[in-house]
Each structure stands twice: as C-alpha cells, then as structure tokens.
Amino acid sequence: MADDKKVTIVEVGPRDGLQNEKALIATDDKLKLISLLADAGFTRIEATAFVSPKWVPQMADHDDVMRRSTRRNGLVLSALVPNEKGALSAIKAGAQALAVFTSASETFAEKNINCTIKESIDRFKPVIAIAEQHGIPVRGYVSCAVDCPFEGAIDPSLVRSVSERLIAVGCGEIAVADTIGSATPDRVDAMLAEVLQAIPFDSIACHFHDTSGLALTNVDIALGHGIRVFDSAAGGLGGCPYAPGAAGNVATGRLVRHLKSSGYEIGLNEERLATAEEYARLRVGR
Ligand code: HMG
Ligand code: MG
C-alpha cells in the first residue's frame, strides 16, 4: 500500500446532507456551506445532484449551486447524476467529477431511480462517454450494499456483481453504501471481502450512514481491508428520501477525530471544519 496512513474524506454534506431536508435550504446558504468546507481544506466535495426536481425538490437549484460554488486549487467539486441529461447539465455548470448511482437491490433501484439495475447501468454508458470526452472522473455508487429498506439483507455477491459491472462500463471508483445505516461490522467485513475479490482496494470508497451508531466501527473494518476513501457529511446530516429509515451520514468531525486518533493523516483544518459543521446544523435547524 503506497501511503498507508493517508485517508481522503469525500464531503457529501451539500448533496446527501441536504437532499432529505423537508424545508428548502436557500441556495446562498448551500454556497456558504460549500465555501466553509473549501476553507477547511477538502479535496473532494459532492456539491449537488442533477436529478429530477420533481423527485428531489431540495436539489432543484443544482445549476446555480454548481455554477456559483467556491473554486480552489486542489478541490474537486462533483455532482451526482442519474443519466445523460444530468451529466450534460452538470458539466455545463462546471462539475469537475460525476457520480452515478445504482443499487444492489432491484426494489430500491426502482423506488429511487425508477428503473432496473441493468437499465440504470445502461443509462450510465453515455454519462461515462461524456465524462471521458471532458477528462473528468466518474464514481459509481452501489446503494444497499448491506441492507435494503424493502428487501432486507443483501447478498454480498450481488454487491460484487453490480460493482464489477460499474467498473466494466468505466467507473473509476466504486462507493459501496450502507444506505440505511443498519450494517453491522461482521456483515460489512463479509461484503467488502467479496467485493475485493473483483475490485482493487484503492478503487473502493465507503459511504456509511450512521443510523445504528456503528459507522466508525465499520470504517475500521474498511481500513483493515486497505480502503482509504470515506464519505461523510458535515454535522452528520443526510439520508435518502426514497430509503425509509435512513438517517444521517457519519458526521465529518467525528470521522476526522476517529481517524486522527488512530494515526491517520486527513489534511483538514479541524477548527474550520467545526465552523462548517456548526453552520450546516444551524441552517437545517439542529
Ligand atoms: P423518471 O420519472 O423515470 O424519468 O425519473 P423520465 O426520464 O421519465 O423523466 C421525468 C422527468 O424528469 C422529465 O421532466 C425529465 O426531463 C426529468 P418532465 O418532462 O416531466 O418535465 N429529468 C431530469 N430533470 C433534471 N435532471 C435530470 C433529469 N432526468 C430526467 N437528470 C430519474 C428517473 C432518474 C430522473 C428520477 O428517478 C430521479 O431523478 N431520481 C433521483 C432520486 C434521488 O436523487 N435520490 C437520492 C440520491 S441517491 C442516494 O441518496 C444514495 C447515495 O447517497 C448512496 C447511499 O447512501 O446509498 C448516493
Ligand atoms: Mg447516502
């Protein structure tokens, strides 16, 4: 492993953190949050989602958010996109990376993106072609990598096969996601062991929601497998409107403190991060 102690945190607060909030957050407040996060030194921020405004009204200002977001050297602003329409708009607005999303559960794919897993991956092909033309990376999320709110426990071999298909169509990184935050460390271990048979550890990121308070233990399991990219949200906000029971992502500050106490290098300014987290909580009234 090249740099065993260096961990990258992908801040997904402006997207996953806010998408589930019922009260609309003002665009200027989202921009302020992204600016505070940029000040804290993140290298990757998922700024917004170019999804249907009918499906997720909170992300309807995606164009404005992406166009007006703070830009910094060394910071990559990414956008979640479900299809070609989203990819074209995101890149036009200045997205520097894209993230496509499917699921290891057919029922969740249908509820969240209104198609089968296969149809979703077919939709990603033009997304990846467009990204390649622009020289920008594409991450592929696999939701319900451990449990599905509708189907229950998910067989790790399904997570592996969906991940393999995402890599085959051109995703450079796979983010396995515990969408409803119910994963236990033993099941995360089993899922990762299976996925790692097909995908190298340095192409995998972990996205843990923290419903059961086990996210940090699950991070430790992933670290043990060599994984060094983790998603989190400022203030522990987050959830998916189409995943009943999904609570917030693991909070970025907690994740940073946990990793640092185990000797990992994160490269963030914790004081500025605390300011960003406070702002995030304040804006959503927590
Ligand atoms: P659909 O209704 O099947 O699509 O939705 P459609 O092709 O029939 O289009 C319907 C309307 O949406 C049309 O507009 C399209 O133009 C428009 P109309 O003619 O009715 O005015 N449309 C779009 N508008 C803006 N941007 C687009 C776009 N595409 C179509 N990209 C669709 C299919 C995928 C669009 C819809 O289901 C959707 O947007 N779903 C997104 C759901 C979502 O964002 N969920 C939360 C994010 S995923 C998540 O949180 C999990 C994650 O965090 C990991 C984890 O924790 O598991 C990533
Ligand atoms: Mg999520």
Q: Ligands bound here?
A: 3-hydroxy-3-methylglutaryl-coenzyme A, magnesium ion
Name the helicity range.
Answer: 40-55%
Output the strand order for the largest sheet. 1-2-3-4-5-8-9-10
Distance between the terminal alpha carbons, to the nearest Å? 40 Å
CATH topology: TIM Barrel
Rg, Å, rounded = 17 Å
Integer average pLDDT: 97
Question: Which stretches are poorly predicted, pLDDT < 50 over at least 5 residues?
Answer: none
User: How many runs of DSSP E, i.e. beta strands?
Assistant: 10
CATH class: Alpha Beta
Tell me the major beta sheet.
8 strands, parallel, barrel
- Count of distinct structural domains: 1
CATH superfamily: Aldolase class I
How many DSSP H or I helices? 11
The second-level CATH architecture is Alpha-Beta Barrel
What distinguishing features does this structure have?
286 residues; alpha/beta; TIM Barrel; 8-stranded parallel beta barrel; two-stranded antiparallel ribbon; 16% strand; binds 3-hydroxy-3-methylglutaryl-coenzyme A; binds magnesium ion
Describe the structure.
The protein has 286 residues and is an alpha/beta fold. It has one domain: Aldolase class I (TIM Barrel). The chain is 43% helix and 16% strand. It has 11 helices and 10 strands. The strands form 2 sheets. Strands 1-2-3-4-5-8-9-10 form an 8-stranded parallel beta barrel, surrounded by 9 helices. A two-stranded antiparallel ribbon has the order 6-7. Strand 8, helix 8 and strand 9 form a beta-alpha-beta unit. Helix 6 runs parallel beside helix 7. The longest helix has 18 residues.
